[in-house]
Design goal:
alpha/beta; TIM Barrel; 9-stranded mixed beta sheet; 21 strands; globular; Lyase, Ornithine Decarboxylase, Chain A, domain 1; single chain
Length: about 425
């Protein structure tokens, strides 16, 4: 949970040099808090690890789409992996160069395609023959040429949960390997399509290099085969999915991954793209929550927080575990077993079961760690709970980078039809 940018100082948890308790007092709880320097450090470390093959590091915006977060990476030269018009707009607003934006996703609409063309997006990863024809139509309409990579499905299972495995044959993603040549042939025949390469993405929260090796072998062989048949394959988008240790797992073996790229991909002489998301931002963020009350039954002790599953979906959605710790260390010795839950009317609104922690008083602050990725981006307003604020910290300075909407603002989006009064 903790790193050099998130530490206890005199018994109080701080992000860089800023007190979480002070931030919570000013912004209210729950709130997300991110470390500027941790995000920067993560990018530079990844860039260093991958230096031998110098990929375009296209940040997977879905991990954390706050413009202030994307801007940190833009300043460092990152690109962006996006899957919607909204993510394109966020990336460009944050300062990502349009030519470094990779437009992925199985459901790109005509409107989104035309918007992307109008903004000079660099690459389109296509995932079906129908999408390829739709993309060409949008390119013709906007008088643009689409640089296209065909995303293949290598039938490789990987990822921390079945719901985030994306490279198996039954999954909706990518074009089956046997149809890759058909897609390349179609691309070559279309007027406004420029076939540039292939792409692959096998899942998320992957902790082992073996599935990548399997996928790289598949895509390398397909590259050689397609080149022999006259197709231009100058770019390989290797996807992302690098996992982080949520629960005492070993760290992802970046050195072994780099070795696999150098051995299997680099000899092909291609431009390489990687799409990290979680690994850049997860350990830079905390969700800070306040204890509402405790509740004890003959079987369990519950610590009820003001944060809920709508604020952090991963435990309910993926049975995910996150580290939890008090913001202020308790003086009392000993610890107890707690089920740590939120106020939403779902049993799945549970952050941890039988978690060892010292008793927290009413209004005590608890930090849920490793929530810089897939925290705020998956949040919603279930139970009419407002989205929580996001805060960025750099050194001792901090700023709210997304305010909490008030209920009046939320309610104003609903409209009662005139005819419903009759």
């Amino acid at each position: 949970m903790f790193n050099e940018d998130i530490q206890y100082v005199s018994g109080e948890l701080c992000v860089e040099n800023a007190s979480l308790a002070r931030i919570a007092e000013k912004t209210g709880t729950p709130c997300y808090v991110y470390s500027f320097n941790r995000i920067k450090r993560n990018f530079l470390e990844l860039e260093s690890v991958f230096a031998s093959f110098s990929p375009l590091i296209a940040y997977a915006v879905k991990a954390n789409s706050n413009i202030a977060v994307i801007n940190i990476l833009a300043q460092l030269g990152a690109g962006a992996d996006v899957v919607s018009m909204g993510e394109i707009r966020r990336s460009l607003t944050a300062g990502i160069a349009p030519g470094k934006v990779v437009f992925s996703g199985v459901g790109k609409t005509g409107t989104e395609m035309e918007f992307a063309f109008g903004n000079g997006i660099g690459q389109y990863n296509i995932e079906s023959l129908e999408e390829l024809h739709d993309l060409n139509a949008a390119a013709v309409a906007t008088r643009r040429i689409a640089n296209v990579a065909v995303r293949v499905n290598p039938d490789v299972a990987a990822g921390g949960h079945a719901k985030i495995s994306t490279g198996r044959s039954p999954d909706k993603f990518g074009i089956p390997l046997a149809m890759a040549e058909d897609a390349c042939r179609a691309a070559a025949e279309l007027s406004n399509i420029n076939l540039t390469g292939l792409g692959v993405h096998i899942g998320s929260q992957i902790m082992d290099v073996a599935p990548y090796v399997d996928a790289f072998r598949v895509i390398a062989c397909k590259t050689v085969e397609l080149r022999e048949k006259g197709y231009t394959i100058n770019t390989l988008d290797l996807g992302g999915g690098f996992g982080i240790p949520y629960d005492n797992e070993k760290k992802f073996p970046y050195a072994a991954y780099s070795d696999a790229v150098r051995e299997l991909i680099q000899p092909l002489g291609v431009r390489i793209i990687v799409e990290p998301g979680r690994s850049l931002v997860a350990d830079a963020g905390l969700l800070v929550s306040r204890a509402v009350r405790t509740k004890e039954t003959p079987l369990r002790k519950f610590l009820i927080l003001d944060a809920a599953m709508n604020d952090l979906m991963r435990p309910a959605l993926y049975d995910a575990t996150h580290p939890l710790a008090p913001v202020v260390m308790a003086d009392e010795p000993g610890a107890e077993l707690w089920d740590i839950v939120g106020p939403v009317c779902e049993t799945s609104d549970t952050f941890a079961r039988q978690h060892v922690m010292k008793r927290q008083d009413r209004d005590g602050l608890v930090a849920i760690g490793l929530t810089g990725a897939y925290g705020a981006t998956l949040a919603n307003e279930y139970n009419s709970r407002p989205l929580v604020p996001e805060v960025m910290v750099k050194g001792s300075e901090w700023k709210v980078i997304r305010p909490r909407p008030d209920l009046a603002e939320i309610l104003s989006r609903d409209q009662i039809p005139d005819w419903s009064q009759n």
